[in-house]
Every structure is written in structure tokens, then in C-alpha cells.
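User: I'm preparing a small set of examples for a lab meeting where we compare how different chains pack in three dimensions. I only have the primary sequence for this one, and I'd like the structure in C-alpha cell form so I can line it up with the others. Please keep the answer compact; I'll paste it straight into my notes.
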Amino acid sequence: MQSTIAMELAANMGLMEGAMRHINARVPARLLERATEKLGAEGVTEAVTRALASVATRSELGPWLAHNWGALADVDRETTAEIESL
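Assistant: Understood. Below is the C-alpha cell output for the 86-residue chain.
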């Protein structure tokens, strides 16, 4: 859930626009596997993008939640459980 909101915030901030950049990094395999799983990503590119969006929008998440809190009451149980696990 958090990474989905972060992706939306990043898009709204224009951070998802422009040229793509290829990166090459060595990371611990278990760390990448766990992060990919926790982020709900389908692959490495999506996991890295979601993680970067989460970091890049961290200070915007609180205001977003405050603004949307009433609407979140109507969210399905699965999403609510994800929010509560954060």
C-alpha cells in the first residue's frame, strides 16, 4: 500500500516523467527478494522503482494520509490490513 501511494505521489510530483536511466548495483540477494515481496513488486525494476518512490516521497506521505483519511474508511479490508501493518 505505501509503495502504491508513493508511486502515485511520485507521478503527481512529475518524478516519473522524463528519460529512463539504467542503473547497475550489487545488493544482497535476500534483501532484494524480501523488499520485492514486501513492495508487492513483480520484478527487480518494479521493486527498485517502488523503493525509490517511497524514499523520494516520504515527507509527502503524512499530508496525503491526513488529506485522504476519511476516504480511507471506505477502503477494502485487504488494503486496510496493509495500512495497519505499516
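A couple of notes for your slides: Helices lie at 2-12, 29-39, 44-56, 58-72, 77-84. The chain has one domain: 2-84.

User: Perfect, thanks.
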